[in-house]
Design a protein that fits this description.
Layout lengths: L4 H12 L14 H6 L6 H16 L2 H13 L3 H13 L4 H21 L3 H11 L7 H11 L4 H23 L4 H22 L12 H11 L9
Helix pairs in contact: 3-9, 3-10, 4-5, 4-8, 4-9, 6-7, 6-8, 8-9, 9-10
Length: about 230
């Protein structure tokens, strides 16, 4: 049965909610170290940081998510496995890998409980069989395909998740208010639209991963003393 637009919007809200139980609250996407080092100290520097991280995510994990959703919609398990392997290979730090895998596996477990979808079950079996690491953006792609949520919805949810994860952490790491973080999130809407138009035509071979500043922050964080979050 074709789901109504209202039902699809409700599911999009559910899957994008910060309260969705995949453990995102445990991570700061490098913000904790950036704040500790004085690189992010106020609303303006926070917005610059969030924009940098969302662009990086859009042209790497976001591209892989779109490719994986197309493969999942076609019941192409090998295509999804390939996208998952590319995301895993793109994570140089131990905490980055643990973050994406923990969230991905929790999402796959939830997907199996929420949906009676044959391909989602096939994907979950591949994860349990240790055939694939189960990175979060790929687990998102499988879920969105099974729930009949389109590519635009997937990309928006992915970008929202990246930004909201950082902004939620910022309330505990940076001298900003809820008004500041919500204003930043609102302004990111136009950027997300631009990034989708760029990412939708890219392939796995086009994934852009050159963000040395983020890699350095991740490396510092793994050995740091100030740790409310993982990465």
């Amino acid at each position: 049965m074709k789901r109504s637009k209202v039902a699809r919007l409700l599911r999009l809200a559910e899957f994008s909610d910060s309260a969705f139980p995949v453990g995102a609250f445990s991570f700061s996407n490098g913000l904790e170290t950036a704040a500790d080092r004085g690189l992010v100290r106020d609303a303006a520097s926070l917005e610059e940081y969030v924009r940098t991280m969302t662009v990086q995510a859009a042209l790497s994990d976001g591209v892989a998510a779109l490719c994986a959703r197309r493969a999942a919609a076609a019941c192409d398990l090998e295509g999804v496995l390939t996208a998952d392997a590319r995301v895993w290979a793109s994570k140089p730090g131990d905490e980055n890998r643990r973050m994406t895998q923990r969230m991905g596996r929790k999402l796959t477990e939830l997907s199996e409980r929420l949906l009676a979808d044959p391909f989602a079950a096939t994907w979950a079996a591949a994860v349990r069989g240790e055939r694939t690491p189960d990175c979060y953006p790929v687990a998102q792609a499988v879920l969105f395909a099974a729930a009949e949520l389109d590519e635009e919805s997937l990309f928006a949810s992915h970008q929202y998740g990246v930004a909201n994860l950082i902004l939620s952490a910022a309330l505990r790491c940076v001298r900003v208010s809820h008004y500041d973080t919500q204003a930043i999130l609102y302004r990111l809407g136009d950027l997300c639209d631009e990034l989708y138009r760029e990412a939708r035509d890219l392939t796995l071979d086009d994934m852009n991963l050159f963000t040395p500043e983020a890699d350095v922050l991740a490396a510092w964080h793994e050995k740091g003393n100030m740790r409310m979050f993982m990465n």
